[in-house]
Design goal:
two-stranded antiparallel ribbon, 2% strand, mainly alpha
Length: 464
């Protein structure tokens, strides 16, 4: 590598460049040159100054007293509400965002008037009643990775049942008898514990809907179990951000369900009981998730979303700041992780959906509790993240698969648009959501779209 550090296009006079003078002698000569030497140096200085003019124009000097302008955002997104307008349903106030609500009084009236909803609720009650009567989590159970729940013979996925497996009770469609190992038991624990936490959330909703105390007693008792035994819980894995689960992603997903259950139990839990849950469950879980995934990353969105739900539940300003305003909070994730063309910067189109599915529970939680206005720009950005893949579809409806993900998938993703429709309404999403019998149909029925079969806007090129 050359040692010449001169700027390109700047050259010294040939005679000077060829002169070899000891460093000390050269320094003295420059400080006190001969008159003829002074003229040559002045001439050289003018040549250098003239050659530097283009650089001076490109890089103006900022006066010391003047503050340098703030750097431009990596991915400018100046008006997200107007992007992909042909796919959105705008509200009377001009916003593409719909305000979700949990209307429990209305839900009871709708239930009384709808045989279809009555049938659905009866099914939920039977399922939850059976689980409450028979199932318990265990402190000593170690959780593994659900992807390990496969036959060692042919890799086929094992059939899950909520009964703890015995030595030879596991099977798959192609492997009728699979010997139980610690690894397989840990994978089964993942499936069981995940379902158990969902049943806590379900029981809290059934209490709120029916007023039957048995559901509240069980749901609150299960939250007591996890908070009372938090410090006793054995180490689940060597991965960061874990306590109950094998990986922090699932830790965050379950924390969202705990927060929803505590919210839906309402005044059934006394202030003292709620404070105990915060001190021994919600606060340490939030600290755990805040200590990991300190980066712009798809899983980090699940961490911040879960902590954000806890912040809203307990009106905790410190947790809100860490989840939303922090350097790796939700505002930063949307600003730095979503490109100007509304693609997730990790370049997997599957992650567009994954990130929105991570943030949607928090956005809805916050909006229902009256905190949604603080997140308008982030919610508009997330809606565009959900819709952007539709804009870059192939004529077949398939998407390219440039990074992490399964086989290429088709858009529009009707089921996901339906999942998001109470906050991000689209014609496709509303039409699909209205065919469902679920909690949203009870709590927050959606209007019929003006056009249930819209023509999708023309495909366009987006910058990956």
């Amino acid at each position: 590598m050359s040692s010449d550090t001169r700027l390109p296009g700047v050259s010294l006079p040939k005679k000077e460049a060829a002169t070899s003078v000891p460093r000390t002698t050269k320094r003295i000569a420059i400080l006190n040159p001969h008159p003829r030497r002074r003229r040559r140096l002045l001439s050289s200085a003018l040549v250098v100054a003239a050659s530097l003019l283009p650089f001076a124009a490109a890089y103006p000097v900022v006066p010391a007293a003047q503050e340098a302008p703030a750097p431009s955002p990596k991915y400018p997104k100046p008006d997200p509400a107007k992007k992909f307008a042909g796919l959105k349903i705008y509200q009377p106030n001009g916003s593409p965002l719909r305000l979700p609500k949990d209307d429990w009084d209305g839900a009871r009236k709708r239930l009384a008037a709808s045989p279809d909803l009555q049938k659905w609720v009866a099914t939920q009650r039977a399922d939850t009643d059976d689980w409450m009567a028979k199932r318990r989590d265990r402190v000593e159970w170690i959780c593994g990775w659900y992807h390990d729940f496969v036959s060692p013979k042919d890799g086929s996925h094992l059939t899950f049942t909520p009964d703890e497996p015995g030595e030879n009770t596991l099977s798959s469609p192609s492997d009728p008898s699979v010997k139980l190992t610690p690894k397989l038991h840990a994978a089964w624990v993942f499936a069981f514990r995940t379902r158990h936490v969902r049943q806590i959330e379900q029981a809290a909703k059934l209490y709120r809907l029916t007023g039957e105390r048995k559901y509240a007693d069980w749901a609150a008792g299960q939250i007591d179990f996890y908070s009372d035994n938090y410090a006793r819980w054995p180490k689940q894995s060597d991965r960061e951000g874990t306590h109950f689960m094998w990986q922090s992603l699932d830790e965050a997903v379950n924390l969202v369900s705990f927060a929803k259950a505590a919210r839906d139990l309402g005044d059934f839990a006394t202030p003292e009981r709620k404070q105990k849950w915060f001190t021994h469950l919600f606060e340490p879980e939030a600290a755990l998730l805040n200590s990991s995934r300190l980066t712009i990353h798809n899983i980090a969105c699940w961490h911040r979303s879960a902590v954000g739900c806890v912040a809203v539940l307990y009106k905790n300003e410190d947790l809100w700041k860490s989840a939303v305003e922090g350097p790796f909070g939700i505002k930063a994730q949307m600003a730095k992780g979503v490109t100007s063309d509304y693609l997730w910067e990790e370049q997997s189109l599957h992650y567009n959906t994954f990130v929105v599915s991570a943030l949607l529970p928090f956005f809805e939680f916050a909006a229902v509790q009256g905190e949604g206005a603080k997140l308008t720009h982030e919610m508009e950005t997330a809606e565009n993240l959900m819709l952007a893949p539709i804009a870059m579809r192939f004529p077949t409806g398939l998407l390219p698969s440039p990074a992490d993900g399964n086989a290429p998938f088709s858009v529009p993703n009707v089921n996901f648009l339906a999942d998001a429709a109470r906050l991000f309404p689209t014609s496709v999403g509303l039409a699909a959501a209205r065919t469902r019998k679920d909690w949203n149909a009870l709590l927050d029925p959606l209007p019929a779209p003006a056009n249930a079969n819209p023509v999708l806007p023309a495909a366009e090129s987006l910058n990956m």
